[in-house]
Amino acid sequence: MSVDVTSWSLPTGIQLADPSFYDPGSIDVVLGAEVFFDLFKASGRISLGDTLPTLVNSVFGWIVSGKVSEGAPRSAFVCNVASTADLHNDMERFWAIEDEPTTAYSPEEALCGKIFSETVTRDSDGRYVVRLPLKRNLLDNLGDNRRSALHRYRLIENRLGRDPGLATEYRKFMDEYFQLGHMERIDENNASSQAFFLPHHPVIRAESSTTKVRVVFDASCKSATGRSLNDVMLVGPTVQQDWRSIIIRSRLHPIMLIADITKMYRQIRLHPGDTHLQRTPDEPIGVYELKTVTYGTASAPFLATRVVSQLATDEKCHYPLAAEVACKDFYVDDLFTGAKTVNEAIELRKQMEAMFNSAGMKLRKWASNVPASLQDVPEENRAIKDLVDFDKDQSIKTLGLHWEPQTDRLKYVIPNITIDRESAVTKRNTLSSVAKLFDPLGLVGCGVLRTATTHDCDQELPENLFSDASETAYGVYVKSTNSSGQTKTALLTSRSKVAPPKQISIPRLELRGARSAAELYGKVSDSLRIDARIHFWVYSTTVLSWLQARPLTWTTFVANRVATIQRLTQNCEWHFVHGVENPADIISRGLPADELASCKVWWEGPTWLRKSSEFWPTSPLETQSNPECSREVRKTAHIATSQPDSSFIDEYIALFSSYSRLVRTTAYWRRLSTVLRTPRAERKMFEPLTLSELQGAEFALIRCVQQAAFPEEWKTLYKN
Q: How many helices and strands in the chain, by DSSP H and E?
C-alpha cells in the first residue's frame, strides 16, 4: 500500500536508503539477526513528528522506521484460497451453453449509451471524438496515483535494461504512439491539476503477424484513495453480436472476406476535456497525455464497437452494403463476412474501405478463399502474401479460429501437451490440457477428452475415461441442408454440456438436452434468418410425451423446461431417433480423435436424413401413462372446508375501517330509531351527537358482539 508523504517535512541534505520508500516494492535481500544491529550507526535519529515515523541512520543511508497514521482509515485484505471443490464447475463452464444475451440494459448500461449518444462528434478529418463515460459522483474521490505510476515505470525500466530485444520493441511501439499523434508531451505546470496516471507494461504476442510486442496501459492502478480510473468509469453494454453467430453466418457465403481494423481504439479520439485522466510517464522522463481511446480502460470495448455502429448509421446512405455488414459481421475489430459472387465481394470490399477511411480508420489483413476478390488490394494490406510458401502454414487466425483460405477450411491447432510418463494422469492436468483447445462451433466436441466426474481432482483416472453418456453429459446437434440437384447434409455447429454432479434421472437429462437444442436453434435462427422447416430429433420417448402436453400437467422441473421448449420451437416438428443413429449421442459417448475425421454420422448425419420423410424413423407408441411420465405428473390437492354463516354484527362491523366512525354511525341509527317513535312536533333531527348517545352506541355494539360470541353465556346471564 502506497503512503502519502506530501505533508511530511523530510530534512534536506540526507541520503535515504530507499528514495521510494512510500511505494511498495519487492524484497531485495533478507538479513539475519546476527548482523542486524551492526547496520545502524551509534548516532543518528531524527523524529518527523508525533504521529510520523523516525529517520534512523544506517550503513545504507537513512531508513524510515515507525508507524504511519493515515487520515482516512483504510483496510487491505489478502485472502489466499486453494480449492478443489469447484473443479467440476470449471469443467461444466468449459462445455456450458452460453446464456442467451439479454436485450434489456441495466441502468448503468443505459446511462453509458446515453452519454455516448449525447457527446459523440466528428472532427474536421471525419474521425470520431468521444467522451469517457464517467461516474461523476465518484470522480472527486479518484485520488492521486502519480508516485505509484512512477514507481511502476522504474520497474519497467529495470526489466527493459535486462532484455535489450524487448527494450527495442518496447521503445519502437511507444515512439510510433508518439509519432502518430496518439499521445503528446505536456507541461504539467500549465495543465490541469486533477489528473490520473496510467502505468504501462509490455504484452508479448509471438503468434501476431504484425506487432509482436504491445504496450498495455493499466487503468486499474489504484490511487491513494484506493480507487482506479476503471472504478469510476461505466463499462457500457454489448453492442455487437456474439462471435458464434458471426462465424456460423459467414460459413454460408460461397466467397469469404476477412479483415481487421488497424489500431482500432487509437483511431478514435478522446475529447480534450478527458485526456487529463489518461496521463502516463515515459522516456525521456516526462508526462504524456493519451489522446485516443486507450486499451486497458473499462469503457474502451464499448466506445470502439459503438463507434463502428455509429459509423454504419451515419454513412448508410453512401455505403449501404458496408453499413449492413458493419452492423452484424464485426466482432470488436475483426470482420468476418462474405458474398455470393466475385463482383459482389469486390463491391462490398471497396465500400467497406471507403466507409472506414471516411472515419480515419483503415482495414488491413484482407483474406479470401477466392483470390480474385482481392485483385487490387496492395500486398501489405493482405494477410497472406501472393508468394505462397507451401512448406509453411498459410492459415489465418481470426476470432480464435485458424482458417485456411486456399482450401476454405477451419483448422484446429492442437497445442503441445506434455505429460510426464512417471506422473499420474489426473482430472486436474487433463482438464488443463483440454482447455487449451478452442472449439467455438463444437465441430470436434465429440473428440475432446472428458474426464470422469466421480473422481477427486488429483486421483488417478481409470483407463476408461468415458462414462455412460446419459449420466455424464448430453449433446446437441444442428445440421444444415443444401440441395443442388442432390441432397446434401452437413454439420453446422454443436453444443455440449457436462451433467451436474447431482444425480438426476435420464429422462430429465434428455429434457435438458432438448431445451439446449431449442436454445441453440433460436441462436442459429436469429443468425441466419433462413425460412425453412425445422425438425428436432430426440431419443427419449418420454420427452416427446412431455412436449405433447401443456406445461402445467407436469412437476415444476419438467413444466418450466417444457414451457421454454414449446415457446422456442413453435411451428417446429419433434421426432424420435434411435440412439445409434443420433449424432448427438456421439458427443455424449465421446469419440477417439483418430476416428473423428471418418465418422460420417457426425459430419453428415444419418443416411436417411438425405432421403424423403417417408424413410425417416417413426416414433414408437408412447402414452403419458408410462412410469416416467406418471412420475412427473403434477400432484393436485383438493381441500374441502366449511364455514359457519357470519352473524349480522360481524358483517356490520366489517363495513367500517375506523372504530370512531363505527360508533358515530351506530349512534345516528339509534337516534333515527328513537325519532321515528317520537311525534313529529317533538322531533329534533339535526342536533350534534351527545356524549350519552355515543356511549349508548358503544354499549349496544359491545352487547351485540357478546351475544354473537358467547350465546350460551348470554342466555344464562339473561335468565339470571
A: 23, 22
* Residue 312 grid coordinates: 454504419
The region of weakest confidence among 332-336, 409-413, 478-482, 616-620 is: 478-482
Query: DSSP code of 334?
Result: E
E strand or H helix that includes residue 477:
strand 473-484
pLDDT per residue over 262-281, tens digit each?
A: 999 999 999 999 998 898 88
Is residue 283 assigned to a domain?
A: yes
320 and 247 fall within a common domain: yes
Cβ atoms within 10 Å of 473's Cβ, excluding its own: 25
76-86 burial: b if 16+ Cβ within 10 Å, else e: eeeeeeeeeee
Q: Please tell me whether residues 395 and 442 are part of one structural domain.
A: no
C-alpha grid cell, residue 507: 429422462
pTM higher than 0.85: no
Using left for φ > 0, alpha for ψ between -120 and 50, and beta otherwise, residue 88 falls in alpha
* 624 and 654 belong to one structural domain: no
Task: Please name which of 195, 217, 158 lies closest in space to residue 25, comparing C-alpha atoms.
Answer: 158
678 and 588 inside one domain: no
Instruction: Give me the count of residues in the chain.
Output: 720
Strands 128-130 and 269-270: parallel
Same domain, residue pair 374 and 260 = yes
**Do 58 and 173 belong together in one domain?**
no
Are 679 and 627 found together in one domain? no
Measure CA 312 to chain center.
25
Q: Which domain holds residue 71?
A: 1-80
8 Å CB contact between 400 and 334: no
**How many domains does the chain fold into?**
4
3-state SS, residue 649: helix
CA separation for the pair 632, 625 (Å, rounded): 11
Question: Does 108 map to a domain?
Answer: no
Burial of 571 (0-12, 13-18, 19+ CB in 10 A): exposed
Contact assessment for residue 308 and residue 360, using Cβ atoms and an 8 Å cutoff: no
